[in-house]
User: Fold this.
Amino acid sequence: MADPKVDALRETLQKYESGELRSDLFGGDAATGSNSSDTAAGAPASGPTSGDEYSKARATVLRKLTGSPKSRHQLAEALQDKEFSADVITSVLDRMEEVLLIDDVEFARSWVRTRHEMKGLGSAALRNELQDKGITKETIEVALEQLSVEDEDAAARELVEGKLRGVTIPVGNGPEDRKEREKITRRLVGMLGRRGHSPGAAFQLVREAMEERSA
Assistant:
């Protein structure tokens, strides 16, 4: 399903880059192309060069946001890579937060939901990913409150079942059969660990899944 916010951003960016308007997101004068919106949005008022830098930085951010949601930290890094000044970066990103085009709280919540549902990731992995994106510890913990122990266990079971599909588990009590079962168990527990599930819970879930398939 299309995201109305992303569609609006794409349309705005196309108009902005074609020269049809400076910006219709920040209260600018679309007819005259004046830079009054730049000043209102916190753009440097020291002259044309500063205004141009602000406009270019803003266009860069809009372009990034049309691809996928980004954290403030990710956007700041992108602007730093393009060597925009620190003042311009701060001004642009502050203004984007004011109009809710940057929202780290919602970004973190969406990231947790999507990565958990699509990849089966547990809290530890999600926490690490959000930390890498510059999300604060407090915001991360609030976002992770969406996941219950039952949610994480269900995701882990689904991952294990997928890996066991088509795998023959030996049921004998001989040393070779036991060795093979231990190898499969270690592999599955390691896989769950890499997906951010706790070792204790991972071992218990793997053992239960293998017992069910061996029954």
About this structure: Confidence is low (pLDDT under 50) at residues 21-49.
